[in-house]
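User: Run a structure prediction on this.
Assistant: Running it now.
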Amino acid sequence: MSTRRPQPDRGRNGLQQRMESAVNFVPKPGAYDETHPYCSVVICTRNRPHHLERCLSSVARLDFRAYEVVVVDNASRDGTTPRLAAMWGARYVEEKVIGLSRARNRGLEACRGEIVAYLDDDAVPERGWLTQLIRPFDAPQVMAVTGRVCRPDDTPVEPNHPLSPRFTVPECAAAGIDQQTPNWFELVNFGGIGIGANMAFRRRALEELKGFDVRLGRSAPLLGNEETYAFFLLVSRGYRVIYCPHAVVYHPCHALPKELRSRYLKDLYGSAAYASFLFFEQSDYRQATLECAFRRVRQRLGHMNGHGNGSKPPARFARSQLLLAAVSGPLLYFRSFFTNVS
């Protein structure tokens, strides 16, 4: 697949000029063959046109032969998303109910690919990202693959960074995690096998799960972990999930202490809510959930108070704040029953 970058026209508005010349460079999906299965790249977005345009421009230059791009507009207000999707040759669909899981499910319904890859709208993939991400699907038991997420400057996230569990994964995940993997339950649910900014699924696997659980995820009652739960369900059904470090995307990472503090507390609330969700929804794994949850709470209390790995956190938390976040998990779970998630 070949693409051509438009030359800037300094005499006209940049966005208008690129829209008018888009027909000359939009990506053209290749034909399906056994070497390159047809793939769908789904990008969910809301009110972030500058991020979206940068993401789309990078996706248009992937070296993969056979793919489509689906932009899911999750109730944006400025009206630019349809124009950007058209400009870069992507199909546009809309999900009017706010929620990342809902938007991802809408993308699943709209796409045509055998493999469905998801990108955040502020993620920028390397040119070979999709080619690398689909390689592990050669094994029939592999139903999901995650890739490496780096900072824009390609530097790793420090071990004591509150977001490091979201950006790093255990080494064993590169060989695949299934039910034969020691400690697989904790690795999939709490160990960080990958994040939604860079992941792909067999379409039939997601359809088997009926998509992502809309109670989970950004703007949902339980705040996050919708992809984590999908990974867990697949492994619990006998499938395998693999981490591919060669499938790279670049993603911004908060650095200011105030942002780190806010994000860490939010993630702690979300993790506690997810543990409650697992406890009540997955009765066969209640003991495992409790053991993992208590172990994670102890680790977080140690790390965020300067213990554990010996590194000093960017901001200290009162123990009462951390405990409050932990005990709020069940409250968030029960609140989900009274929230319209149909």
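Confidence is low (pLDDT under 50) at residues 1-33, 305-314.
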